């Protein structure tokens, strides 16, 4: 494979690689363990947060980071730190890199990568994943009427200068320190996106000087179609960011949110969020959000190590929810694709209401139908 292993992550996903990615058999499941807990199951938060009937009045409200009060932001930061201080639920030795409960979510995302991306379950899986995160925030004392904050990308063209990343005590932490050796973002044979304005360790704000433990995964892992043997091993390095105002300005503006919400089918929504054939000029809102933050957010597998992941995916879910709500009769239960990355024909069936997807140790499996409505079943939240 003529592919530099220094090129990494989601942003590195090259259409150069895609034609070679033709699968004729089911992907190997990435390490099947029968994981047995000695001290009970994963601690679940309460379902929904409503007593049976979900209404506009009793729904959890997810707000944009900038619209939250200082107290709410501090409560969110404290709850995330609490998740990072609780021990992993994996039995000792099963996932050496998973030290904390927070890492357990990252583990599950990495493990599912070849099923949950560029597939018919992408939106539903990430919706529930953010919800599992939210349940754990509540277990950590976050107020139950507040939802996971979301990131409205259109507010942050100058991403390295906004309050969200200014390094203050009520921010999500600062940019990475300037690292002159940080690399441009490779998008395949047609070129590179410019690097961001940080690249080094995050040394300011609530998550300063933290350690991350998974990855970096080179882009070649995506092409090979299975995780490296040692993906669960502890690989400590500092938590970095490389905030990228060029990506934010050119790929995360209202032209693209307007275009997305004007889509007339779910296939189009998925393609506009993460175009499978992409070039430098059209990243898609989902991919661009990852690219605009830099490693590890730009890592296709290990991105949840930056907490911005959850705000970004709440932002993606807000787009999907808004689009669904415009025409619930035709859009609520609309799906497109299979349960396999890039939807190859004949590997897994086209998804429908009854398609099941799973969350490893985090939560029971569920169906697409169960995950289709943020205001019913296990869900009861809305965006404001
Ligand atoms: C990874 O996913 C497979 C298939 O769902 C599951 O059997 C296995 O336990 C998971 N591994 C980890 C470490 O969560
Ligand atoms: C993080 O580490 C850097 C370099 O060692 C240090 O200057 C900085 O004060 C630390 N920040 C915090 C918040 O501890
Ligand atoms: C969004 O960025 C594109 C460039 O990618 C530009 O053509 C467009 O005018 C921008 N839209 C807004 C509203 O700034
Ligand atoms: C979805 O919309 C796109 C763009 O309008 C169109 O090309 C495609 O054929 C549509 N797909 C379905 C399944 O209707
Ligand atoms: C999914 O979308 C693609 C592209 O729009 C379309 O060709 C295909 O027929 C759709 N599949 C189903 C089952 O609707
Ligand atoms: C999916 O389930 C919903 C809710 O029960 C139903 O209205 C819809 O018709 C189902 N879709 C299909 C294709 O069966
Ligand atoms: Cu993901």
UniProtKB/TrEMBL annotation:
One Pfam family recorded for the sequence: Tyrosinase
Tyrosinase copper-binding domain sequence ranges: 117-134
Molecular function in Gene Ontology: metal ion binding; oxidoreductase activity
Entry keywords, A to Z: Metal-binding, Oxidoreductase, Signal
Signal peptide: 1-26
SUPFAM superfamilies: Di-copper centre-containing domain
Name used for this protein in its record: Tyrosinase copper-binding domain-containing protein
Annotated organism of origin: Microdochium trichocladiopsis
Phylogenetic placement of the source organism: Eukaryota, Fungi, Dikarya, Ascomycota, Pezizomycotina
